Amino acid sequence: MKKRLFCFVFLITMQMGFAQNNLLWQGYFSYNDIKDISESSTTIFAASENALFSKSTTTNQLKTTNTVDGLSGETITSLYYSPTSNKTLVGYKNGLMIVINEADGSMLNIVDIINKQLPSNIKKINHFMEYGGIVYVSCDFGIVQFNLATMLFGDTYFIGNNGAEISVTQTAVFNGYIYASTIDGVRKADIANKNLIDFNQWTQIASGSWSSIEAFGTELIAINTTGYIHKYNQVTNSFTGYLSLPQASSDMRATGDYLVITTASSAYVYNKQLVLVRQINSNQIPQSNVVFVCATSIGDTIYIGTTGNGIYSTTIATASAFENTMPSGPSRNNVFALQVGANALWAVYGDYAGDYNPYPLDSYGISKFSSAGWLNIPYEKVLGAKSIVRVIMNPNNENEVYMGCSYSGLLKIENDIPSVLYNQTNSGLEEISFISGYHDDVRINGGAFDKSGNLWVNNSLVLNGLKVLKANGQWQSFSMEGILDKYTNASMGRLIIDKNGTKWWGTNYEGLIGYNESINKFKKITLGPDKGNLPIFDVRSIAVDNRNQLWIGTSKGLRVLPNVNSFLTDDQMTTNPIIILDDNLAQELMYEQFISDIVVDGANNKWIGTADSGVFLVSPNGQETKYHFTTNNSPLPSNVVNDIDINSATGEVFIATTKGMVSFKGTATAANEDLNNVYVYPNPVRPEYEGTVKITGLLNKAIVKITDIEGNLVYETTSEGGTIEWDTTAFGKHKVASGVYMIFVSAQDGMETKVKKVMIIR
């Protein structure tokens, strides 16, 4: 047990190191959907769903911050920059608060609100207001004091009736009193009162539901949830209706000389006399369907945060062109599927429920990442393709990409331009016909190219469920009668093709299906020892490894088919669980786990994504779990993993989750054809470096020997794939001393050799 605890602590420590090491992790986040903004005299700060960015108004320099830098992957709900402390406060839906020291970039996670003995659904942070070195944090249960100097929470105010929890939307200090807008009235108390934790010290001065309150010059302004602006009358201690907005307000704030009020379609700028000096309507912006969220000003410039379009800015005094600010990134964070080629990565955002039901349908576009940056193709340009759930790149021509849709068929993209949407009207694909009222519903989820350039896809819920688009443009269909018990239940998932040309794909009710046209046979692997030994019918992911084993991920665990050749020889194939020893007890690897994806890297390790437990990296035989990445020990923004893919040339592992995409720069690259490109990094190895030395550009099964300058052997291994790691120890016993070390690389047959050097400085 002590050994397990040590390994667990070591793993967490190591992964937290990864989270701070940009050489190993990279974030690919969307910054489009703005949740909140704040400002200094020279910088605009913005929070998207779970990442931040800022822009200097003097240099125009953009800076991004995401989970790789230490942020949480949870949903951000509020943001505040404190000019007095030079700190940025980030509030989350779950009550987490992160304080960023802008001087050095350090972050402090504060979990006091999360740990409060309150229902989890009322811990959301709605607003920050600073007064006298104290930040008053408005939450869905009340108000919490936070001291910027000590970085500690103070009192909590439950100001509802009889001290009950109440959702506070905003606070303001005006003429010696603190005012709180809530979902049940506006309440006030003497800011100097030392006993504000007593709800009796708070007086309700207005009824109804209120969205915001703000002190502005000699006025106190509040807006109710219907969009009616009110002014406070100190004589009557009440609010008087002033102006009715055409929509509910989403944000109000006082910045310098202006009061800025935001609705979904307009931003209103008032001067200190409460005269409207500028109204900006969303339809003035060239992009269609722009939705405003919040707005602020720096000097004479207004910055408007939007849903889906980042920030727009323009001058207040006179009408001028709009400038759009948004770091480059994918169009959405919830990446459902991706595929990586040698030169590009494609990501799609459609999805379906656990039973493969795509409704309600998604109308999202497509994203491509390459050396040129991000290209986001909007929905308006994808020929009406809805619920795009799979990417199928042509391995012989990366400029030809197909997208499987769980409703609209198969979309073809050529040179980054959607060109054809294949469906029941123009191809061999078929729509669902057995359900009354279903029209144009063509479900394509899995697909892969064979060696001849033919594209094979599965077509769910139709009898002829296997289709091929041949290289000559002709379609062919294959009936699954006799192999499927009930095709009307058989929603199909991922599809792969092994070295024998056998097509494999998973279903939700029929297990794993295989087809090989050379013998013209379908075969099936399902439940029971005599039918294939799967733990459940629902197969979600499949991968063939470098030893021709078929790894099968289901919604209830893992199975392995020992050799894909058995499809050609055995009437009934049988899979096996992987049994590991855990505390000297036999355990089944990935027991009962919902496995969403399996990918094999260049060293034959398996990357296993799960529906709620993050990502596992296991050894080629599954006996060793090398890494287990979660939101707690890595920059993974969510433990819900949708898809994984690997750049075989670089070893970079891309992980798509429901809250963003990150990559881990592993060491397992595909094997090279020769030793001409062998190189060693880092070189030299400096005292502060704590990682391993990588030797890459290797042949598969290359023999690597490392000696000191005197010829004493300190390490020896045989590569699986194109890269090996050396922990700079002498056969794992102790760290080697400073000096130059010789690296001898030879092919398995000894016909090709290479010698390299690495310097180690202790």
TrEMBL record:
<feature type="domain" description="PorZ N-terminal beta-propeller">
    <location>
        <begin position="44"/>
        <end position="203"/>
    </location>
</feature>
<feature type="signal peptide">
    <location>
        <begin position="1"/>
        <end position="19"/>
    </location>
</feature>
<dbReference type="InterPro" id="IPR015943">
    <property type="entry name" value="WD40/YVTN_repeat-like_dom_sf"/>
</dbReference>
<protein>
    <recommendedName>
        <fullName>PorZ N-terminal beta-propeller domain-containing protein</fullName>
    </recommendedName>
</protein>
<dbReference type="InterPro" id="IPR011044">
    <property type="entry name" value="Quino_amine_DH_bsu"/>
</dbReference>
<keyword id="KW-0732">Signal</keyword>
<dbReference type="Pfam" id="PF21544">
    <property type="entry name" value="PorZ_N_b_propeller"/>
</dbReference>
<dbReference type="InterPro" id="IPR048954">
    <property type="entry name" value="PorZ_N"/>
</dbReference>
